[in-house]
Write a structure and sequence with these properties.
This protein is mainly beta. The chain has one domain: Acetoacetate decarboxylase-like, CATH 2.40.400. It contains three helices and 14 strands. The strands form two sheets. A seven-stranded mixed β-barrel has the order 3-5-6-7-12-13-14. A two-stranded antiparallel ribbon has the order 1-2. Strand 7, helix 3 and strand 8 form a beta-alpha-beta unit. The longest helix has 10 residues. The termini are far apart. The N terminus is likely disordered.
């Protein structure tokens, strides 16, 4: 059997023994770097969102906050549930690989405060593929695998098009490990120029990577409060209306502790933005 020789080059010269031959922004690092789950930033996103604002029990939701983060006393318990259907690209037209870089997700954001600044704290987040999962962990989102679906809108006029018009209805749901976790519905009432009272805060998350070493399980390698630096944010086709939201109780999950006591407005809109950097607010390992 004939075998070929695989020789790595740098600047036209073979790499010497001992030189780093592996590439890639994330694991798995490989000779060409193509196998990495996520390419290098900046990262760009675009997609559709179905959102419902709600209020949960602040005496319960306060226990989802890390040290230094407090609930917003002016809006105790105010939160938003977000269903996203989006695609991603970096610098090499990754959006042309839809099986790998399209994603559907679900996120909960709580109105909170950090050192006097209004923030949105993210206690729970679900996505449906591995590339989105590792991107989330790098950004500070506590992502888990979930199955997310939402009603889509199409430009054609027809019974299944779900047009963006008065009285049009949209639905969304999320499940994990065969158990239903979230169900939502929005009935559109009017178009809006901008979002008011929702998604108007910088999102803060927690980058947390534990150690497996014996005796070090409670001493994580990384434990940071972070805020992603984004730019070129565009939000369009904003519709508001009536929202419905339910968090069914499910074994192995704790999302239901944030179940809505009161449901407010529903939203449907399209977005795009870029992630260029991350700001470390606090190192919690110190």
């Amino acid at each position: 059997m004939q075998t070929g020789r695989f020789e790595l080059m740098r600047d036209g010269r073979p790499l010497a023994v001992g030189q780093e031959m592996l590439k890639g922004f994330t694991a798995p690092r490989s000779p060409l770097g193509i196998a990495a789950l996520v390419p290098s930033p900046p990262w760009h996103f675009a997609g559709d969102v179905l959102a419902v604002e709600f209020w949960n029990d602040p005496d319960v939701s306060i226990h989802t906050l890390p040290i230094g983060v407090e609930l917003d006393r002016k809006r105790p318990g105010h939160s938003v549930a977000l269903f996203t259907d989006y695609q991603f690209t970096a610098q090499n037209n990754e959006y042309l690989d839809p099986a790998r870089y399209q994603c559907r997700g679900f996120t909960v954001l709580l109105d909170a405060m950090w050192k006097g600044s209004r923030i949105a704290w993210c206690p729970y987040c679900y996505v449906d593929n591995d590339a989105a999962l590792i991107r989330g962990w790098i950004q500070g989102y506590p992502e888990k695998f979930g199955t997310v679906h939402q009603t889509r809108s199409f430009a054609t006029v027809g019974a299944a098009s779900a047009p963006l018009v008065h009285d049009s209805r949209f639905s969304a749901c999320m499940s994990a490990h065969g158990r239903s976790l979230v169900q939502a519905r929005v009935t559109l009432r009017e178009q809006a120029e901008r979002l008011v009272g929702v998604l108007d805060r910088r999102i803060v998350g927690r980058r947390y990577f534990p150690r497996l070493s014996a005796g070090m399980h409670d001493k994580p390698a990384v434990d940071e409060l972070v805020r992603c630096v984004s730019n070129q944010l565009l939000i369009t086709n904003i519709w508001t209306g009536e929202g419905e939201l339910d968090f069914p109780e499910a074994y192995g999950e704790e999302l239901e502790v944030l179940a809505p006591l009161k449901v407010g407005r529903g939203y449907r809109f399209t977005f795009s933005y870029s992630i260029t950097d991350i700001e470390v607010l606090a190192d919690l390992t110190v």
